[in-house]
């Protein structure tokens, strides 16, 4: 069971920076649909649990050390190429969003120009990969329970300090920008881009164990934890929608409402999770094209990092709405392939 919890925790640690920490993602894909966001959150929880379990088990079945083997296994020679390209595109896209998110965090919390915050994240990400400081990544992964603790505090505060009616909350929520046409599509797109972004790591983690039940349980636990986080953040933001109206980093704003010190603690957690995700995605993207021991690997890290910084100047809120939606639609191909693979194996397990 310990190994299952490790897999689940690592899965949450990777995804939480890309899809949860700032609150902007939950806002655009859930909260902006008002009361229906609660139903969307439940749908997303079930989808995360199933897909997490399936991907981890695929990694175990093939005992792979690379996501490519599983992708070509479930997609075949031709569809596999498309899925490989999609996941590779996601890795770069999520890293860029993390650079932009760092800029928004610095601006909202400390009043610093967003460009400075983005440069900070790009520089420490590049330095980490150049120095190969793996221990730092492992330490930052410990921020996950710390972040969940702060989110729970924000939830309690939001519920007990509500000062408008549910009807008013619903109206205000629906006035926010949405990244999808309806609550169901919002939930599915959200799951799609997050799963596509985390698939590579989850598959490799599944390959580290020989018991598919242990791997599957890990993916399932990770998916359920992600779902619980969606529900908690969504409730907190819906309750205080009048406070976070139009804010780039909603969870940070709620933390600041409690006390400036809580705001600082939240900003540290946000930067830690964004750093963790940026390093993981950036590394996975780079090694897809050039081996870590290649003489030009470090040069590639710097060049790709600068390209990522340039792309991040589009802005965090815009990237969350546009880039993540595009990734979500493309990610449906991966979800369909995983479901078909699971259905093929179903008769053998019955």
Automatic annotation (TrEMBL):
Gene3D superfamilies: Amino acid/polyamine transporter I (1.20.1740.10). Keywords: Membrane, Transmembrane, Transmembrane helix. InterPro entries: YkvI-like (IPR038728). The keyword Transmembrane helix applies. The chain crosses the membrane at residues 33-58, 78-100, 112-132, 139-160, 180-206, 218-241, 261-285, 297-320, 326-343. This is Transporter. It comes from Lysinibacillus capsici.
């Amino acid at each position: 069971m310990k190994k299952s919890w490790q897999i689940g925790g690592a899965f949450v640690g990777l995804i939480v920076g890309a899809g949860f920490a700032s609150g902007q993602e939950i806002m655009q894909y859930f909260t902006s649909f008002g009361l229906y966001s609660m139903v969307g959150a439940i749908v997303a929880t079930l989808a995360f649990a199933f897909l997490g379990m399936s991907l981890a088990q695929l990694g175990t079945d093939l005992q792979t050390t690379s996501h490519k083997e599983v992708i070509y296994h479930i997609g075949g020679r031709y569809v596999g190429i498309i899925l490989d390209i999609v996941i590779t595109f996601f890795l770069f896209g999520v890293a860029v969003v993390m650079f932009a998110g760092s800029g928004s965090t610095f601006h909202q919390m400390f009043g610093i120009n967003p460009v400075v915050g983005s440069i900070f994240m790009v520089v420490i990400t590049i330095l980490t990969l150049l120095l190969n400081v793996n221990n730092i990544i492992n330490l930052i992964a410990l921020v996950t329970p710390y972040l969940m603790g702060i989110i729970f505090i924000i939830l309690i505060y939001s519920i007990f300090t509500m000062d408008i009616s549910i009807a008013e909350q619903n109206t205000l929520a629906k006035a926010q920008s949405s990244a999808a046409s309806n609550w169901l599509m919002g939930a599915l797109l959200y799951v799609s881009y997050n799963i596509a972004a985390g698939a590579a790591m989850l598959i490799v983690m599944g390959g580290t164990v020989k018991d598919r039940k242990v791997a599957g349980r890990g993916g399932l636990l990770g998916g359920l934890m992600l779902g619980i986080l969606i529900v908690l953040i969504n409730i907190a933001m819906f309750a205080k929608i009048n406070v976070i109206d139009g804010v780039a980093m909603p969870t940070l704003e709620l933390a600041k409402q409690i006390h400036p010190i809580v705001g600082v603690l939240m900003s540290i957690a946000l930067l830690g999770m964004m750093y963790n995700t940026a390093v993981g995605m950036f590394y996975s993207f780079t090694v897809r094209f050039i081996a870590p021991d290649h003489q030009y690997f470090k040069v590639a890290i710097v060049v790709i990092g600068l390209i990522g910084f340039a792309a991040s100047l589009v802005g965090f809120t815009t990237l969350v709405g546009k880039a993540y939606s595009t990734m979500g639609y493309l990610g449906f191909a991966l979800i369909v392939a995983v479901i078909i693979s699971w259905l093929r194996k179903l008769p053998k397990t019955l």
